Amino acid sequence: MNVAEFDKIVAACEKNGVQMMDGTMWAHHPRTAKLKEFLFDSDRFGQLKNIHSCFSLAVDEDFLKNDIRVKPNLDGLGALGDLGWYAIRAALFANNFELPKIVAASPGTVLNEAGVILSCGASLSWEDGRTASIYCSFLANVGMEITAVGTNGTLCVQDFVIPFEETHATFTTCLKSGFNDPWVSRPTEHSVKTEIPQEACMVREFARLVGEIKNKGAEPDGFWPNISRKTQLVVDAIKESVEKNCQQISLSGR
User: Fold this and answer.
1) Interacting residues of 243 by C-beta distance below 8 A, sequence separation 6+
2) Measured CA distances, 10 to 18, 228, 245 (Å)
3) Tell me, what's the pLDDT at 213?
4) Given the DSSP bridges, would you call strands 117-125 and 48-56 parallel, antiparallel or unpaired?
5) pLDDT at 178 over 80
6) Taking 80 as the threshold, does the pLDDT of residue 212 lie above it?
7) Could you tell me which Gene3D superfamilies the record lists for this protein (predicted)?
8) DSSP label at 17?
9) pTM above 0.85, yes or no
10) Which domains does the chain have, with CATH numbers?
């Protein structure tokens, strides 16, 4: 999959009045709305300076030999297209889905014998100085972290892809800490309850959108394919940078 192939899928959906939505389930958890509320609070969080997002999973030997995600002719984007997709989406989410200006893979990418990415990292940078780093790997222990640092506050999430519990999910914030006594304002843990798992929330929202189209003649919601395309653009740019020995890739005009 690359953005050119993605555009063909979206064009077919638009031609037929069909709703397109990718399966990024954590975007539909009620916690995500609370994360957004904090990240875009100019008083509590301030202006975003940096976000780090990580999704790693130590797979077994059978996976590394036989899974479609390690086959170049099947799901050839490997860990980048699978785990990296979630980490990239988190970085874009924190930046209000504004594309970075520059993307560069980090040194140390691990490829299998077929050239599929098993582990990689990357840096993203925006024109005004905001930065992001992402890490994804099939070779490291489970990690699903977000750390976002703003001028006034810090946000930490330990389980952003799959919450520890299906009934609720937590995140931690810290506000306006100082240098001489940095923890005068202690981190605060917030808990968000949900009646159904995030995957069910996703299906429910998709069904709602389809119902609006089918029963009320509504147009498909363009938000979802738009953020999917931006995620794919960053995936493509990281892959290109890997292939070009960590060269910086510009996303201007893409």
Assistant:
1) none
2) 9, 10, 31
3) 97
4) unpaired
5) no
6) yes
7) Dihydrodipicolinate Reductase, domain 2
8) T
9) yes
10) 3-244 (3.30.360.10)
